[in-house]
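Researcher: Next entry in the queue.
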Amino acid sequence: MTTTITAQALTDFCDEYLQAANFSDYCPNGLQVDAGVPIDKIITGVTASQALIDAAIAQNAQAILVHHGYFWKGEPAPLTGMKGNRIRSLMQHGISLIAYHLPLDAHPVIGNNAVLAKELDLQIVGALYPHEKYPVGNIATTAPISAQAFADKISKVLGRAPLYIGNDPSRTLHKIGLCTGGAQDMIEQAYAMGCDAFISGEVSERTTHFAREMGIDYFAAGHHATERGGIRKLGELIADRLGVAVTFVDVDNPV
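Model: Structure for this entry, 255 residues:
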């Protein structure tokens, strides 16, 4: 028997599980586009790109669940150009869009940081910013490992080689800060918290100088690659708890 659910009921489940109301974010978390169609198949992915929408259309899905949705602070409001094309595709094909940003980064079990840490055999021991009740960055420990061996492990786990910035690949790492996505500037906080290294998704020109001059290793492992884990795990949870068919679609992104 096929299980169906409304977009609002699906959102309510995710809102409660991720404690979305506790976050002040750069975009609205939860239901962003309601197509008003009962849902029996969900496509999950990192970003609600046109390619992901096209995959949902091809697979006759009625909902897309992502980490990067729409309506970010500071972006133009009119539904024109690329944004207009995306919204039009969703509405014309009866597809709802649900998105979770910081709540999906920070969740202690299925969050992006938690999943990445587990995959890399890291043990999360605290928050990168101790004052945060729901930390979006973490501090973890590892069995002693060289910087080069850690880079090799990242390559194996994520299927892509990280950009490693450091002074000595043979240096032994013990304490590692991590925050997936575009959190490269948190390297300064990782240094302040006594971390040997910091891992995130993206890198900036300034990141290189800070890492080299302050003696903290940096691993830029890819914004997309480091944030596949959370949304994939959320989809698996929904399939298990709600009985709705869920398929993860990985739209390749080298960044």
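Model: Residues 7-105+227-248 form a domain with the Udp-n-acetylmuramoylalanyl-d-glutamate--2,6- Diaminopimelate Ligase; Chain: A, domain 1 fold (CATH 3.40.1390.30).
Researcher: Noted, moving on.
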